[in-house]
Specification:
The complex is a heterodimer of chains A (331) and B (286). Chain A is mainly alpha-helical. Chain A is built from 15 helices and no strands. Classes of the chains: A mainly alpha (331), B mainly alpha (286). Chain B: It is a multi-pass membrane protein.
Chain lengths: 331, 286
């Protein structure tokens, strides 16, 4: 049984996990073939040593699964800090939420942030992967630099960019002034805060797409490219009609991972704007934190996180659908 | 790939790669420079690229005895405690995860147990766990049972991040070891425990070192769990945010703090680039 944040329905389960299984097993058919042989050779019997070895890990994670359900339950109560009696109030928290503009503003902010960041990262990720796949001198030397943004703590990334985006003394405004542009308010203006955050996300996670697409590009048989060239395909045509369909599943798998993580993004947004200025970057996870731990309304905060989780599921589900659509055309 | 590339294309491509690499590396270089500046130099316009470096900011961070007395005002920071906390929590998490996760990974790779694939995906699913939804109830539980603000509690809750990762990574590394070696040893009469201790573990060592580097990094990154479930045992990421006081912006001191949190990951890249790439993209590509 998978945990509920990746499978709401059976179909989500089969399609979502299938996606990952298939991609992995295509890479490692050897291992799965060996498993099959082993299974048919010996009849299944209970192996107590194996169960003892796996039990502690599974039990700890089951504990977290229980907490997850407990959190969903809390979203149906009026739990507040210091309140001795807790009542089950059904969907009242949700009903109260959807009546407020703040809530819909948060939903919109979450979708805009994740949607635009993932789209831009996918496009830039392909470009960066293609560029480094040329294997020119600097591409070989600079390869480890791709990893750099991914290994930094997201909170450090957030504060690093806060410093650089300072309207008065920030280096970004200086660089803009070099090309003759005026000062930009970045994260301190409601009108530009969201785009600034998306830029930070793009800088940080484009390398994730690049690494995965790189693996996809290396998997393409050189003979296929050669055949296209012999048949007179120009560079762009080879890319559009030969390479892109072959790496599309990799792009979409990376997109599933990034979409889930950026819909849940907390560190970068909390570290830079804490949801402000005004309400402009108040995504659901940040609003849930503020509701639960600053206003101490745990029930209401949990309800916000449940809504966030449903959006994550829906987003992952749609991307996996898309993945299943592009996959058959490849094989 | 394309060997017949012309010279000018080659230069253009190198130039493009250089620009991209600079875009990725420049923010870090800039922060490093800033951490060596004085407050006045940081606020200068246009920004200074040439200045006489000082280690003053790092002294402010770590010199607990003289905390508060800086050349440009008073700030109270105690950065050594959060750094120690982060190291202790991360090392503890790595240790517990390895102890529990590697046996599980071995079973999932080699043994036949009921619902094996279901269990494997149950574990992988935690890569997408909505941390806040788990932490909101956990906050009350921790307060009740006294685990709030303890290393033990923090290490336990960090398992939600590190344990699934180590199970899957060790499973994939074990699958890379040819099964024949184990079978041959078993055929020669070696007991299963001996096979694991003397044959599997030595072969697995490089993979496990790489995996532990990666999960150390994941633990080092974490912010939300420490923010909510600890106060005096808060990790360095939480302390970092506190350096950014609204109103008074001691950017150079914060830059020094950033350098401290970023130096470990950068060292890890140098130590195990290959393993980190495998781990960071894990689940999407094998």
């Amino acid at each position: 049984m998978p945990p509920p944040w990746i499978s709401m329905s059976v179909e989500m389960y089969s399609s979502g996990l299938d996606a990952i299984v298939t991609l992995q097993s295509s890479v490692s058919q050897l291992a799965s073939a060996q498993d099959g042989a082993a299974k048919s050779a010996s009849p299944p019997r209970l192996d107590w040593w194996s169960i003892a070895a796996i039990a502690p890990a599974v039990l700890i994670l089951l504990g977290f699964l229980f907490l997850f359900f407990y959190g969903v339950f809390q979203s149906l109560t009026d739990l507040k800090f210091g309140r001795p009696l807790v009542h089950f109030i059904g969907l009242t928290n949700y009903a109260a939420l959807i009546k407020t503009d703040d809530f819909w503003n948060s939903v919109r902010a979450t979708l805009v942030y994740a949607g635009s960041a993932v789209l831009a990262e996918a496009v830039l990720g392909v470009a960066l992967a293609k560029l480094f796949a040329t294997e020119v001198f600097l591409a070989r030397v600079m390869r480890p630099v791709i990893l750099l943004p991914l290994v930094l703590p997201p909170m450090s990334v957030a504060l690093m960019w806060t410093t650089m985006m300072d309207p008065q003394s920030g280096i970004l405004n200086y660089l803009l002034s070099l090309v003759g542009m005026g000062r930009f308010a970045w994260i301190s203006d409601p009108a530009t805060a969201m785009i600034s955050l998306v830029l930070i996300d793009i800088w940080t996670y484009t390398p994730f797409f690049t690494l995965i697409i790189f693996a996809g590009l290396q998997g393409i048989n050189e003979e296929i490219r050669e055949a296209a060239r012999v048949n007179g395909a120009k560079g762009w045509a080879t890319f559009l009609y030969i390479e892109l369909p072959l790496i599309a599943p990799y792009i979409l798998i990376a997109a599933v991972f990034r979409l889930i993580e950026s819909l849940n993004q907390f560190d970068i947004i909390f570290g830079t704007t804490q949801g402000g200025p005004g309400n402009s970057t108040s995504v659901l996870s940040v609003r849930a934190y503020i509701t639960a731990f600053q206003n101490l309304a745990f029930g209401r905060g949990a309800a916000l996180m449940v809504v966030n989780w449903i959006i994550v599921l829906a987003g992952a589900f749609l991307t996996v659908k898309l993945w299943r659509y592009v996959r058959p055309r490849v094989s | 790939m394309r060997l017949n590339r012309s010279g000018s294309t080659n230069i253009a491509l190198n130039l493009l790669v250089g620009i991209c690499a600079l875009t990725l590396a420049f923010p870090l270089i800039w922060i490093l420079l800033m951490s060596l500046k004085q407050q006045g130099e940081v606020m200068a316009w246009p920004p200074k690229f040439i200045f006489s470096p000082t280690l003053e900011n790092f002294r402010v961070l770590f010199d607990a005895a003289q905390a508060g007395a800086t050349s440009y005002g008073t700030i109270k920071v105690d950065f050594l405690t959060p750094v120690t906390n982060s190291v202790a929590i991360a090392l503890g998490s790595v240790f517990v995860s390895m102890l529990l996760g590697v046996p599980a990974g071995y079973v999932l790779a080699r043994r036949d147990i009921p619902m094996k694939e279901d269990i494997a995906f149950f574990i992988l699913g935690f890569r997408f766990a909505p941390a806040l939804l788990v932490v909101i109830p956990l906050f009350n539980v921790f307060q009740t049972i006294g685990l709030y603000d303890t290393y033990l509690g923090m290490i336990w809750v960090y398992q939600v991040v590190t344990l699934p990762m180590i199970v899957w990574l060790s499973r994939s590394y074990i699958e890379d070891i040819p099964k024949d070696i184990e079978e041959a040893a078993a055929m020669d009469g070696a007991k299963p425990v001996r096979v694991i201790l003397h044959i599997v573990l030595p072969l697995l060592k490089p993979g496990l070192i790489g995996a532990s580097l990666l999960i150390f990094l994941l633990a080092w990154h974490n912010f939300a769990l420490g923010l909510i479930l600890s106060s005096t045992k808060a990790p360095v990421t939480v302390a970092l945010l506190k350096l950014l006081n609204p109103g008074v912006q001691f950017y150079p001191v914060m830059a020094a703090g950033l350098v401290v949190t970023m130096i470990i990951p950068v060292i890890l890249i140098v130590m195990g680039q290959r393993h980190l790439e495998r781990g960071l993209t894990f689940g999407a590509v094998k």
